[in-house]
Amino acid sequence: MSTSLLYHTWGIRGCTYVHARYERGNTIFRVRQNNSSLRSSCCGSREVIKRGVIERTFRAVPVGSRSIFIQIAVHRVECLKCGCVRQVKIPFASPRRSYTKSFERYALELSRHMTIQDVARHLGVSWDTVKDIQARYLRWRFDKPKLSKLKRIAIDEIYLGSRSGYLTIVMDLDSGAVVEVAEGKHAQALTSFWKRLRCSRAKV
């Protein structure tokens, strides 16, 4: 195993391979974050002092039926420039997520051809995890589109499970495009949307 293989196969960048172990049919790769990628997560400065570590494990794209995990000691640093004390960003995973970015892309691709339950079963994760990945993609894909040409809209609420709660979706009835995906339900979930709609001067 090499650092290059981890990068090209699982998208693990900014880290160096340490060792691998095998437990209960799972493969667990231990990696170490390179000092060159240690930056303040607040301002991006490299002028930081290490203030401890926390062990984290991320689920990566599986190989056949074998689950793959990435283990890393995440540094907590103090920035000498802005004074912020936080964990550094992980190059291969989004904040507050327990899976890699490549795993997220893989789950989205499978979702185009399989049901949520089938994707969850294949990847060894919960139904809520797959729905959370889909919801994050929707928020990214349809974040703040132009509203000035809206004429007719439809509003719907979707329940994603106990972990993710509700999403409120606004659709353009003329084009079929989703123009807003907001967390929560009821009127308060769309407060920012109504404000943007007024500013756009759309005639809905």
From TrEMBL:
Residues 88-137 form the Transposase IS204/IS1001/IS1096/IS1165 helix-turn-helix domain. Residues 153-198 form the Transposase IS204/IS1001/IS1096/IS1165 DDE domain. It holds the Pfam family DDE_Tnp_ISL3. This is Transposase. It comes from Candidatus Kentrum sp. LFY. The lineage of its organism: Bacteria, Pseudomonadati, Pseudomonadota, Gammaproteobacteria, Candidatus Kentrum.
